[in-house]
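Limitations
The structure tokens in this dataset are predictions for the assembled complex, not deposited experimental models. Users should treat interface geometry with appropriate caution, especially where small molecules or nucleic acid strands are included. An illustrative entry is reproduced here so readers can see what is and is not provided.
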Amino acid sequence: MKEGYTRVASLDADHELAVADPSGLEYPKPSTARRMTLNMGPQHPSTHGVLRVVLELDGETILEARPEIGFLHTGIEKECEAKKYQQVVPLTDRVDYLSNLNNNQCYALAVEALLDLEIPAFAQWQRVMLCELQRLSSHLVWLGTHALDMGAMSVYFYCFREREEILKIFETYSGQRMMTSYIRPGGLALEPPRGWHRAISAVIERLARGIDEYQNLLMQNPIWCNRTQGVGGLDLDLMIELGVTGPMLRAAGLKTDARKDSPYGAYPHFDFEIPTRTGNDVFARFEVRMDEMRQSVRIVRQALEGMPSGAWQADAPHILLPDREKMKTQMESLIYHFKIVTEGYRVPAGSVYAVVESPRGELGYYVVSDGTAHPHRVFMRTPSFGNLQSLGAMLEGVLIADSIATMGSMDFILGDVDR
Amino acid sequence: MSVLPEIAGDNAIAVAIHEHLPTAIVDAVKAVDGLVFYIDPGQIVPVCQFLKDGAGFEQLMGITGVDWWPRAPRFEVIYLLRSYKHNQRLRLAVRLPEGQEIDSVCPVWRGANWYERETFDLFGVVFRNHPNLERIMMPADWEGHPLRKDYPVHGHKYSYRDE
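Predicted assembly:
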């Protein structure tokens, strides 16, 4: 332990030469005149991805924090332009790898709006149900890793156990645990598997009990409460100006949710509430997300009860790949299959900005079509990018230990930030 | 006195902008999800300031570009706005020829910072008066702007075929 401290001190001494003149910064120079620059990341367990935060420290107090991003930039938006419309769907999975279905859904909404496609009720309800399951699984990962960062290890195991059950459902639906590509322009990728109703109700009933248990596990833990209450707050107006969306705004008292503000898909048929808190700290964000999980359970239950029957894809043979059986027996289906696979489908020229509420906030896809089978431009307005922009303001003047709690409460995904 | 494009004639926001800044809206296009207003590049900051203070658009959801190469003017810069007060969304666009700069809207919304950096990085659109116009996605020493249409998907510096 002691050796570690001396190492840090020597690094500090070396570094003071480099940062001897921190001009152009607004805050007063600390009285001790000892500033240290500390690199947090790009590989740091609490950043959950490759994020680098440059911290200017005075002792343990953060004077300035500069998040530096781009380490996970993979050029997905550029790649979209080289693909046909239907080939973009698997790319949207990889943007925010914890809420793939929400990304699929958002892209599908954008393309469907350009094509003016009508989606059957059954597909719409299935989408809502799956997106809420995705929200549950994403929030479970957030809860587990957030608690783990703060030293509460058992919650992590419980959360990942439950999440695995949800991922098994996704696997029965799409054949993939995570990169589902299940929601596509025009409906769903495959017919829902036999027995989906029973499988989902079993998982959801178990989860409904679990949520209360995990919340109690943490809320009755004085360390958790002390480390989260009154930490990581930022003025609501400043958060809005910096582009923050989602649970962070709701924890500051603003009642906003794209599912209610600009309802899409089958959401108008569902009865649910937008949980808000006024605490505006890490603890309030925790409470908001726990309540969101309860609301998601409520939505999934309603979907299980009221699921309409009908087709799982729109009636659009020129856009959707035909059934395999028909393809082998009917000439028209074979022609459509050949045309879609080789040429793709043309989308009328125009632009659209489609919005969904992802687990992290407002997710928007701005799609520009020039009338060909390739999108001219796909811009992903990802919630993590906007949320992360507020990190610098949020960490000013707090302790290093609190920065871990604050970052955990933001729930950003670096794939979502860098694209 | 310039006139408002015909299709924007009964749009309350367009009329309000027009009253305040008569030459700001140069064009309006009907998109699937509503009207898009094309703003004169020189007046983007006053228009945004007016929309924020006078029309309740508190949040800038994003800024991005569209490259229409080889068509001229080459670039479009898109501004996605959001009003919580009135539960509205609005899309502004600016047509920008290659090489022309545009004023940064960072003084209006601090959150424009990263979005303008991204648009600069990926399209090479320069934002005047930006506090820190550096690359954000690509490495600092990267050459070229990847989302331009004349930039190949596989990158232009290395040819993997020769290896």
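Some entries come with short summary sentences. For this one: Chain A has two domains: 1-33, 76-416.
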